[in-house]
Amino acid sequence: MGIVNISKLDISYESTKIVKQLDLVIDDGEFLVLLGPSGCGKSTLLNAIGGLIDTSGGSIHFDGKDVTWADPKDRGIGMVFQSYALYPTMSVEKNMSFGLRIAGVDKATIDKKVAWAAKLLQLEPLLKRKPSALSGGQRQRVAIGRALVRDADIYLFDEPLSNLDAKLRAELRLEIKKLHKTLKSTMIYVTHDQIEALTLADRIAVMKDGIIQQLDTPHNVYNKPQNLFVATFLGSPAMNCIKGHLSVHADKVLFKSADLNIDVSGYPFVEQPVDGAAVTLGVRPEHLIAELNEDASENVIQGVVELVEPMGSDTLVWTKFTEQHTLSHRVTSEDQLSVGDSFKVKVEATKCSIFDTQLTQRL
Predict the structure, then answer these.
(1) Of the residues 233, 264, 286, which one is the last residue of a structural domain?
(2) What is the domain range of residue 255?
(3) Which residues form the ABC transporter domain (predicted)?
(4) Which residue of 6, 16, 27, 296 lies most exposed, with the fewest beta carbons within 10 A?
(5) Beta-sheet pairing, 4-13 with 16-26
(6) Is the previous residue joined to 37 through a cis bond, with omega within 30 degrees of 0?
């Protein structure tokens, strides 16, 4: 079992509150990602779960057992950090088994656990090597192996891939995902990398200033952000945000901003929209679709291309649609656009997000 229940957790450094009255339940076998910008409290929260720092208030339970003040060694967890922290004079095998040897585990059990972890992480040919003879990705796999041999129910990862290059990050990301499928253990993973969060997580907890802004599946966090912070934090490039107001009629609801008029009648408003309400329309770049039909008019806007950024499989285009609104959108790599070209896009209104401008919350 690996259920983690965090209730009313406070963590402070002197007079500064880092984590504030945080409630979080992580299910057995779940892969939860703590995502947010630097300084949001995600690593602090992870360290509190691991027992590496003291809390100022609240409680942490593992499978119903209060571990708020338990030592890390008594929590039954495995931890992997951003730094590999391997002993340079020890072989891979010795590094992986060090904790077990210190704990007095018998040699036969140690050998069995190390062999199991080495096979799982494809480290078998490297067991006799020293860390200096390994690549960055191999060293991080050794660090993961060292955590695995503890045979824990809960594993904590603190930005384990941030020191690796893009290719290695992609490879290790795949290894960690396969590892979770195999072990079915609870995994809590800290990152500021959106791709890691979206590809690895069962659920994502987006944090800001020590508070969870949204806790949901990757699909919902990306497509249905609960507030403007989540909307603009996730996505590369960020969601286009356009301030305006709603114009409610008997048969339709319009979003108006400067000389933009977007029919949002099909948008799933939680409550009845209010005429004149100040709102912000959020549009992902992929929801501005190139419009080739010359006669189309509904939710079609025309502008002038200001910047073209080839991205390989597609191209990111920045187009000025009004004096106030330059928006990013995607086209296929075959679409050859140049600065100064006139271009039309259709706004997929049902896939947009609408927020209360003052409260910043999703409507």
Answers:
(1) 233
(2) 240-356
(3) 1-234
(4) 16
(5) antiparallel
(6) no
